[in-house]
Amino acid sequence: MKFEEIKELMKLFAKSKLDKIKVKNKDFEIEMEKGGETVAAAAPVASTPVASPTPAAQSAGAASAESEAQPVQEGELITSPMVGTFYAAPSPDSPPFVQAGDTVRKGQTLCILEAMKIMNELEAEFDCKILEVLVQDGEPVEYDKPLFRVERL
Question: Is 136 within the bounds of a domain?
Answer without folding.
Answer: yes
